[in-house]
């Protein structure tokens, strides 16, 4: 029974990832890009066996203004915390037809993002 649950969970995660990639690819063609700002930044740490502490990524809350002029925000996790600065500018890709749908908002913390750089 446990193995069935694990398989179901893996299939569900794979479908969710595929749907997200399809939405991102569609928005790269049809969506709007705007500049956002990192309004909140939480750094995550991990510990090793010797007691050392290492940066393990970050969670950033990004604010942006959509096509209708409404200020919105979205929260995304990012593995490379070294490129994140509170108050720093980021790129936001969003769907003007679905402004309330967080799954239709992608953020890039890089200046010239490739398709896989959008989270």
Which descriptors apply to this entry?
119 residues; alpha+beta; 5-stranded antiparallel β-sheet; 1 helix; 5 strands
How would you characterize the overall build of this protein?
The protein has one helix and five strands; from the N terminus they run αβββββ. By secondary structure, it is α+β, with helices and mostly antiparallel strands. It is flat, with a radius of gyration of 17 Å. The N and C termini lie far apart (33 Å). The model has no long low-confidence stretch (mean pLDDT 88).
The poorly predicted ranges are: none
The portion of residues forming beta strands comes to: 35-45%
Helix proportion range: 10-25%
Based on CA atoms alone, the radius of gyration comes out at 17 Å
Find the structural class using helix and strand composition. alpha+beta
Shape estimate: flat
């Amino acid at each position: 029974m446990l193995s069935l649950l694990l398989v179901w969970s893996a299939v569900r995660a794979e479908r969710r990832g595929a749907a997200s990639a399809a939405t991102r690819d569609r928005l790269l063609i049809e969506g709007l890009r705007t500049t956002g700002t990192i309004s909140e930044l939480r750094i995550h740490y991990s510990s090793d066996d010797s007691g050392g502490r290492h940066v393990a990524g970050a969670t950033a809350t990004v604010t942006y203004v959509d096509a209708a002029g409404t200020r919105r925000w979205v929260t995304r996790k990012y593995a490379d915390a070294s490129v994140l600065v509170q108050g720093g500018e980021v790129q936001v890709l969003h769907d003007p037809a679905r402004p309330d749908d967080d799954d239709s908002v992608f953020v890039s913390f890089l200046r010239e993002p490739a398709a896989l750089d959008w989270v």
